[in-house]
Amino acid sequence: MDVPSAPLYFPDSPMPDSTARRKFRALARSAPWLSTSLNIEIDIPEELGDPSRGLAGTVTAKLRQREAIAVHNAAGDLVFQEETFSAQRSRDYVAATNSSWKLPSTLITPVYTADHLVLRRPEIAGFNGLMPLDYWAAILDPVEIAGREPAALDLAFDHPTYIHELREISYEGRSAVAAVLSAGHTYQPTLANFVLVPAETRTLLILDQNTGVVLLRQVLTGSEAQAAPDLKLRILAQDEYYINSHFQKVHWLDQPVVRS
Hints:
Blueprint: H1 18-29, H2 31-34, E1 37-44, E2 57-64, E3 68-72, E4 78-83, H3 91-96, E5 111-112, E6 118-120, H4 136-140, E7 161-171, E8 174-183, E9 201-208, E10 214-222, E11 231-238
Antiparallel strand pairs: 1-2, 1-11, 2-3, 3-4, 5-6, 7-8, 8-9, 9-10, 10-11
C-alpha cells in the first residue's frame, strides 16, 4: 500500500509491533462498551460549528449511552437537548427504520480480547441523529480507523488505516495512546460528510485508554492538512448517573393531565 512519507512524530519511540497495533485497533472498536455515560468538553472548530444554534467555541455535553444528550455553552446555557428513550415504538416505527432492529451496546456482547477490549464488534444501534453536530459521532466512537473486526490474514494489507507510529502517553492528565495514521484502501468513514483520517495524509489521533474516544485529531501532513481542523475533546467525568430530566425538554411533572 502506498503511504505518505514524513518525518517521525515520535522519533525516540520504536516501531509499533503487531501486538501494540492489535491493541490500539481493539481500543478504537471499544468505546460503546467502556462507558455508561460521559461528561465532556469539546472545542468546536469554526468550520464545523453552528453559531445560530449556539454550537460554537467550547461547549460541555452530558451523554448517556446513545439515547440522550444535553449540551451547554461556556456561559452554562442549554443550547441543545435530545433523547430517544421516550420515542414512539409502534409498528410504523419498526417497519420504517433500520434502527428498530439494531440493539444498543448494553444488550449485545462483543468478542473481547484478553485486555477486555473489543476484538470483533457486532452491529449495534448508532446515534441516529442524536448528535447536534455530525462529526461528534466519529470522535465519540472511532471504529472507522479499525474496522469492526481484524483484517483477513491472507491479504497483504486489509486494515482501514496504516499505523506508522504508536506511543502510550499521558494527555492532559489521562492515560492515552497516540498514533500516527494514514488511510488504507479499505477505509470507510462512519459519516458521509466527515472523515477522521483524510486520504493521503498522516494524521495524529490520541485515544483515551479508559473510554476509547478521540481526545485529539490533528492532520500532520498532506494536501488536506490545511482544510482539516484540529479536533479537541476533554473528559470531565465518566459513568456518572444522569436521570431522565437532564435530557427532556418537558419534565414529566409539567406535562398536562388528561382527565376523562
